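Q&A log
Question type: sequence-to-structure
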Amino acid sequence: MVMAAGLGKRMRPLTATRPKPLVEVAGKPLIDHVFDRLRSAGVERAVVNVHYLADALEAHVTHRVKDIEVLVSDERTQLMETGGGLVQAREMLGDDPFVCVNSDNLWIDGPIDAIRQLAAAWDDDKMDALLLLVPLARAHCHGGQGDFHIDPFGKIVGRRKPGRLAPFVYTGVQILSPRVIRDWPEGPFSTNLFWQRAMEAGRAWGVVHQGLWFDVGSPPAIAATEAVLADG
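Response status: OK
Response body:
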């Protein structure tokens, strides 16, 4: 699943006339970078949710994305946030573990393809969620203070505490089991609900990304990201 329904408020004024996934970075829309990574990992089918300026985004993924079958989860009437978006797309996602990717982050694979690395690490017997994490010190253009703590084996053991740093940042790339999508509240809500349940059950894990990652959340981050990429 590709999460592409957000309003892109931090990216204004660029998002006044286009949805954030269609904002260009390094010569192509953000969502095209995502599909490049999905394609290289062998993904053949993707669900994309749409809300803000949905017509433009739907036309793009329908006519411009090649070699991957695209299904659209329509949130035009109500933005469901990340957790609600998963619920709305549940029937299209099938019954197997699936990759879920935010459309507003950009990453470059290291020696190991990040999505293939996640897939290789997935253990259905002990995992409900497997998140791709990047060390806070290598989170380009990211203004946050970290998200998670993991143990030496990769199990997520806690979130950042107020006033402290956490060593790892969530990259917006994960594998989820459909069994985590249950007992949801009405209306929009965050995937944090599903993560918290997985953490409490000891079934939330992390894999450390070996390449580059950029939080392309605002116009200044575009130039900063392009400068790093231009250095090779």
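Response note: The radius of gyration is 17 Å.
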